[in-house]
Amino acid sequence: MRVGIVGLGRMGAGLAQAAIDHGHDVIGYDPGTKSGKVLADRGLALVTTLGELIDELPSPRIILVYVPHGDPTEQVCEQLRASASTGDVVVDGGNSHWEDSRRRHREFAQEGIRFVDLGTSGGLWGARHGACFMAGGDPDAYQMIEPLLRELAFDERATLYAGAPGSGHFVKLVHNAIEFGMVQSIAEGVELMTRSGFELDLPAVFDNWNHGSVIRSWLVELMGDALRKNPDLSRLATYVEDTGEVKWVVRWALERDIPTPVVSESQQALMGYRDLDAPVAKAVALLRNGFGGHPVHER
């Protein structure tokens, strides 16, 4: 296939390289930075404008968008609505609000353009080596992109057609909310062991847990790796980056009287970690860096 990818940051670049590795022709454009030059040396056809990307793709075009949610996504979608053609498929792979995705589906449909909201999970490793996809939109639009997604996915079960427009991003953001709770509980475990009075080899503990224990998982593996690389937590700041999308889920649940105590408390804790000096905060920052490449600040 010949596909376009708009946004060559952490996720977009990884997926572009994975698509190239699977033999696809990838046209790449990054509206915000000069990224993509390294990929150009590995087979990416790098263009400097969105118009060039449109011109380089055969109809019906498949265009994947991996830019930050909010204004950057809105701007790219507005440009694509004006320049794409009837029958093209525009895929928003970022963490957009599901109501924005519903609106964009209607707006693109007015132009005869098909729109898919594609939740993408797996972090930086997944983008490069096998991601998890959750798609919302019209079935015929999903069928257009499904062969590509299956090649970029972790396995045959890692590609899901969730349903109606908006459902892909809704499922992904609930996933992120669950992730917050899991990250918080793992980080609190680091806090407990750090303050236990025992001289514990924390990376060894997490490695042990990831071999047969009830809580074995990729997050537990990432926590062990992060502690191995950062044995001195005192050098780290406690400020934890927050991209904000889990707040949407919490707010939506509150408006419907749906209790989410673990997720809500995890979000509150994340905001509180900006002013504390506690191992739990540093563990959260390390985990978020491990799966999503979010910054870890030093003192």
UniProtKB/TrEMBL annotation:
Keywords: Gluconate utilization, Oxidoreductase. SUPFAM superfamilies: 6-phosphogluconate dehydrogenase C-terminal domain-like, NAD(P)-binding Rossmann-fold domains. SMART domains: 6PGD. InterPro entries: 6-PGluconate_DH-like_C_sf, 6DGDH_YqeC, 6PGD_dom2, 6PGDH_C, 6PGDH_NADP-bd, NAD(P)-bd_dom_sf, Pgluconate_DH. It comes from the Bacteria. Gene3D superfamilies: N-(1-d-carboxylethyl)-l-norvaline Dehydrogenase, domain 2, NAD(P)-binding Rossmann-like Domain. Residues 168-295 form the 6-phosphogluconate dehydrogenase C-terminal domain. It holds the Pfam family 6PGD. Belongs to the 6-phosphogluconate dehydrogenase family. NCBIfam families: gnd_rel (TIGR00872), PRK09599.1 (NF007161). This is Decarboxylating 6-phosphogluconate dehydrogenase. It comes from Pseudonocardia zijingensis. The lineage of its organism: Bacteria, Bacillati, Actinomycetota, Actinomycetes, Pseudonocardiales. The gene is gnd_1.
